[in-house]
Amino acid sequence: MWNSRQTVSYGESDLMNTGRKKNREKLLAVIAAIVLAGTAVFGIFIAPQLRVRKQLLERMHQSQLKLTKMQGDLLIKDRIDNIYSQVEPLIAGSGTEQQEISLFTRQLGELYSKLNVKIRSVKILPSVNENFYRRLSIKIEMSGNVKDVLQFICSVETSQNPLRIEQFDLKGLETSNNIEVSMLVTKVVAEAKQ
Fold first, then answer.
1. Whole-number Å distance between alpha carbons of 102 and 96
2. For residues 92 and 132, is the Cβ–Cβ distance under 8 A?
3. 3-state SS assignment for residue 166
4. Which domain, by its residues, includes 101?
5. What's the pLDDT tens digit per position in 22-75?
6. What is the mean pLDDT of the chain?
7. Which contiguous run of DSSP H or E holds residue 122?
């Protein structure tokens, strides 16, 4: 009796093991089908969308960089325009080049006529055209007392007109307080408007 029960037990056990194996196989088949379906969905639908998104993000970043550069360029242009609008009244031209040179020599004459200096020569040099202005140049050679020459130099440098000393040569004379000076004085004026 005991043998028959044991045989029945083994038979049921074998049936249960076979059922479990079949269930496991079914479960593994379902999991494999889900993985294959997921891989197919990813390959067909998701991966192309990710590539497109990546390309769009790259284009967006490039566009943002261009926009940032353009904004920087506009800020620089606005600053330059602002500075030029402040400087323009100082360098505003009053006419032709001859009129500008005449005005320039008259301004220098007013500065040194009040001082005890001897003007040895005044040479007008050709003007130089830059982007939006002209540079007028006059070479002056003078001699006189150190104090008067320094007063002239200070008057040029502090003039409300845009005058500037570009070159400066100094030579002492035999008398202790007198010197000879050669200097290039320049003035900036706006280009004549056409």
1. 10
2. no
3. strand
4. 97-190
5. 888 888 888 999 999 888 888 888 888 889 999 999 999 999 999 988 888 888
6. 81
7. strand 117-129
- Residue appearing with tokens 């242009």: 77
Q: Rounded CA gap, 57 and 50, in Å?
A: 10
Give the separation between CA 153 and CA 55, rounded to whole angstroms. Answer: 65
Residues 3 and 76 in one domain: yes
User: Any bridge partners for residue 181, and if so which?
Assistant: 142, 170
Last residue of a domain, one of 74, 91, 108: 91
- Residue 117's CB is within 10 A of a number of other CB atoms, namely 21
Q: How far apart are the first and last CA of the chain?
A: 128
Which residue matches tokens 């008398």?
175
Distance CA 118, CA 141 (A): 9
| The pairing of beta strand 133-145 with beta strand 163-172 | unpaired
3-state secondary structure of 77: helix
Of the candidates 63, 93, 84, the one whose C-alpha atom is nearest the C-alpha of residue 161 is 93
Would you state the structure tokens that stand for residue 82, as one six-digit string?
């602002």
Does 177 lie in the same domain as 129? Answer: yes
Same domain for 85 and 3 = yes
CA angle, residues 107, 113, 114, in degrees to nearest 5: 110
Selected residue with higher pLDDT from 160 and 58: 58
Q: How is residue 134 written in tokens?
A: 């002209």
Residue 21's nearest CA partner among 31, 29, 9 is: 29
Based on the fold, state whether residues 108 and 55 are members of the same structural domain. no
